[in-house]
What we know:
A: 393 residues, alpha/beta, two-stranded antiparallel sheet, 40% helix, 13% strand, globular
Amino acid sequence: MKLFAQHGYGEGDKVNNGLKDGLISGVIYGAKDINPDRLETRLEEIKRDFPDAGRLFDPQYFVSLIGNDPNIKLGKLDEYPFFKARRRGQLEANNLVAEEIRKVLEFQAALPVTDIIAPNILISRSFDSVEAVISKSFIRQTRKIFDEFKVKQPVFATLAISREALIDTTELESFLNDITLLDSPPDGFYLLIAARDVEARYDIFNADVIAAWMLLNYSLKINGFKVINGYSDILSLFLGAVGGDIGCTGWWSNLRTFSLDRFAPETTGGRLPVQRYLSINLMNRITFYELNALRRIVPQIVNGLAKDKAYENEPERTVEILQTWEALSSMLESMAHNNNVSKNLNKCADAIKLAEELYREIKFGYRLDPKSDDSHLEPLQEGINLFKKMAEI
Amino acid sequence: MRFNLPTEEQVRQIFTQFDEIKFLKEGGFKAVYKVSTKGNIEAFKIVFIPVYGQAEITTEVRKESLARVKREIKILNDCKSPEIVKLGTIQPTNVIFGEQEFVAYTEEYLSGNNLRELIKEKIMPSEHEVRLLLLSLLKAIREFWSLGVIHRDIKPENIIKLGLPERNYVLIDLGIAFSVIDTPLTFDTLHRMPPGTFRYLAPEMLQPNFRESIDFRSDLYAAAVTVYEYAAGQHPLAKNEDDLITTLSRIIKETPKSLREFRDDLSTLIIQIIDQMLKKIPALRPSNLNMLIKNIEDTI
């Protein structure tokens, strides 16, 4: 599985440095945080400097259904020619859906992107809903409309699902049965799993959600689709184990978990979070202070990779994302050459066991911050078990 | 609701062009004879059409029976794939044998054993044979689906091994084929079990509303069961001592053992494909037939 940068506010040199150091294989720009001119410039620059890197653009069309909210923060999104606030009822008409897809694809067809991401709405409540029908309409029409543009890049249908909808496995199976048998299928899917808000870590670190997300990857891959997982962060390891092709993460918490909350008004007065270090063996981020306190007592929490050097003292803030990409890439590399899902899942389970052991050692003499603790491990293991049951592995 | 099997003599009286007639088999509403006309050998099929007024017979049953024959003929006419049986020289004709009505027509005569006979011989097929069978079935399913058709009765009894370079295995009997394009034929769907042979029914066929969502992946499942049975010498789920309910319960709930447990000499590719095609959720069966066929052909 490859790792891509999930772009957001304040790109700076982060993407360039990530590509230069070989920590990421590409980037997915988000419409909210870059204007159309700058987007084109950045795509051209990356194409020139890193010709092998993936260059994608997420049109974030799903925001259109909340676009009429007076408090919404659209950022640069409303500078894009395809963006317009819509009501659900309008999108029940197939011809408007086709028109919306056409506008988004037309915009991207003129850009130096390596792959094209088609628009879609978010299925916010259930697969048995009007939203799901509209979403399927977007997916069904993507290929046909894409073919009008006669461009060579692969096209990805967006599939954005709330965690509430995702955990109804009966409905999920039925939805999957539909989208894996399309007359004119896209080349792949850009999967987004939405939490209620970006800080609701346990919305996503939940066994049912993890298992269902894995099932989506597994099923789509079996059926010959490429799968890009947006905002998948650490879960990329598990999604890659069952067939996912690309995982993404970025430099803010709202680029590690997908939520429409990103478009809610920002609360002011917050302070910058403490820099964190992604420990491969803990499968989690711990604060710099925790790393400092524990690195001699439990040396296995240190990755032994190049960016560790920057954490010998309090690191510069820009280093944090590079360290994340480095650690995550290293984790994903361990799965890179093995198409055997059972073996991959065993590797994941072994990694969880090791993390549990290390956490036991840490607990012996140290109290971790709640975000750094081991509460993610149980849902990860349970998620694997549930997935294996659903997929009969 | 049985029919009286016409004797060879009764058939000869109506179809005087036949030089030779030999009864081969009967099953359900059908009987098959081997016939020869001026050296041309064909399979002569008669399909019983129930008559309104007999016990249990309603106009709907009669209509459905006639429509099924018509559909089978139409599909056979449209199919060009060598993996599917071809129609013969006699076009569908209504005939009366005794006092019973039949539709009679011919198909090409396929000289070879059916897969059930080969399984009974307990000879483990080679990897090459398993691949050829799998390829033949996948190509047949692909051809059916291009016409919006699901065979619904893929099983060892309906596959003939010809062993010819361009025609290794041939699929026969489209009597209960389902079209997702045409008007449904089955009446009283709420009170009738799905047609097909229970041991080869895909799990989704056992859902009450299966006609709404059925697609060729049900055929993929049945094909996988058939190839598995041929390769392993035993059905992946059903056991001979099981009653119907137990078999159906196994189909819905039980995960079959990997083919690897019986045939560790087979390649990982073949094992993985068969195991994957046996998944209970249709979306977990590989549906990209072109890719699947190419993968197998590339490694032959």
